[in-house]
Amino acid sequence: MNKLSNIATDVATVKLLIDGAFVESKTSQWHDVVNPATQAVLARVPFATKDEVDAAVSAAKHAFKSWRKTPIGTRARIFLKYQQLIRENLGELAALLTAEQGKTLPDAEGDVFRGLEVVEHAAAIGNLQLGELGNNVATGVDTYTLLQPLGVCAGITPFNFPAMIPLWMFPMAIATGNTFVLKPSEQDPMVTMRLVELALEAGIPKGVLNVVHGGEEVVNAICDHADIKAVSFVGSTRVGTHVYHRASQSCKRVQCMMGAKNHVVVLPDANKEQTLNALAGAAFGAAGQRCMAASTAVLVGEAQSWIPELVAKARTLKINAGKEPGTDVGPLISCAARERVEQLIETGVAQGAKLELDGRAPNVPGYEKGNFVGPTIFSNVKPGMCIYDEEIFGPVLVILSAHSLDEAIELINANPNGNGTAIFTQSGAAARRFQEDIDVGQVGINVPIPVPVPLFSFTGSRASKLGDLGPYGKQVISFYTQTKTVTQRWFDDQTLHVGVNTTIHLK
């Protein structure tokens, strides 16, 4: 973090959004937003002060009084307009995302599009926020439930999906009648802020959506603030665990999507070409910086002989800046991220894994300062090695071997993480046994990254998730609303004089 105070600079500053206005922070702490392919400084982002966080929450609290009573149809129409604006600006959003995050332009468009799907889902909120009615549950008595918004909610988002994950959060929270305070990643907040501008253009009233930037102090302020009722988090296991416990102690609802070690089981009857293409794309796409990346392959039986062909596939991938046409693997987000991945590769070699393909220090003409690591593949990997036990979050695929499907299932279930897993096979029986016996929240069958569409909920499990309810889908409606149960009886002239009833039940 760069600490600056009253230093003249021609680099743009990222603004806060408080009560409908984009304002310059009064902080003395700033962080450079850096292009990971060139190291050029694109902007400076402020680490908001406590007073600024308080002001954002106060604006959201005030706006909630009227927003919660805004008709569902009115709220939904804002998101119909919002999805149209996102579509119209997709190219601009993708280019901005690539510049600050590094992923390829097609992948950046996918980042925006998967968030857009949730915005479309928010526009259909009227079908999801329905209560229940029990008619005549006792004589002349009806009981019904209402799904009412909580109040001020907050979201803390990571660097790897700066469009998709904010769009997982604030549209669903706001569509259900809440107001929102968003804290984007300080490493790449620019595309998030452009999405926020479009949200205001779509008609979100002032104070309903607010944005603060910062690091640990701002995260803690969100966790501790008495007026925030719910916190949604996506990021590392270390930070997510901290957020969950700290916010829970403040009596908040909390959902934390965290780290992963996603295994792909390959049976020897799988379609080889399809499987190798899928595995290479899911392992090395986005430079491996996906919480759902297929970072771990478990080759069963004769499939272990496919390693040379997998290496050959990985060698064909083009490493370059994300904006360059034909790029398959862009840079990592920061110099520190690159150094960490390189150190883990060294550790893997030292601990006895076989380095089948070394992606360190690739030659990328014109981008010699970029944070590049090429596709890297290890075989002979075993539990207990750092490259297996840790989430590498880089373009590194580790390969383990198993003699049978049962052994592969046992291996995966022994891993503490449960974000996603997949199996490649042409056997329906094997696929069915895998999906039933595997203890992982999201399962793909011949699909390497089984992230569900917004009609369903993101359902990571075990050490990859804290909190019972996932983002988007039906589950998030339960997260962002509270159920109020109403029992009513209306008396007519014949029942007005029934006498005193001292029993607990209604008749």
Please explain how this structure is put together.
By secondary structure, this protein is α/β, with parallel strands linked by helices. Helices cover 36% and strands 21% of the residues. It is built from 15 helices and 23 strands. Strand 16, helix 12 and strand 17 (396-402) form a beta-alpha-beta unit.
Beta-strand segment tally? 23
- The rounded distance between the terminal residues' Cα atoms is 67 Å
Q: Main sheet: which strands, in order across?
A: 15-16-17-14-13-19-20
Catalogue the unreliable spans: 1-8
Any key phrases for this structure?
single chain; 507 residues; alpha/beta; seven-stranded mixed sheet; six-stranded mixed sheet; 15 helices; disordered N terminus; NAD; methylmalonate-semialdehyde dehydrogenase (CoA acylating); Aldehyde_DH_dom
Write the layout of secondary structure elements.
Layout lengths: L1 E2 L12 E3 L2 E3 L5 E6 L6 E6 L3 H18 L4 H17 L1 H12 L3 H18 L10 E6 L2 E9 L2 E5 L7 H12 L3 E5 L6 H13 L6 E3 L4 H9 L3 E7 L2 H13 L3 E5 L5 E4 L5 H13 L11 E5 L6 H9 L19 H16 L3 E4 L18 E4 L6 H4 L6 E7 L2 H10 L2 E2 L2 E4 L3 H10 L5 E3 L15 E2 L2 E2 L6 H8 E9 L18
Parallel strand pairs: 8-9, 8-11, 9-10, 11-12, 13-14, 13-19, 14-17, 16-17, 19-20
Antiparallel strand pairs: 1-4, 2-3, 4-5, 6-7, 7-23, 12-22, 15-16, 18-21
Helix pairs in contact: 2-4, 2-6, 3-4, 3-6, 4-5, 7-8, 9-10
Short description:
The protein has 507 residues and is α/β, with parallel strands linked by helices.
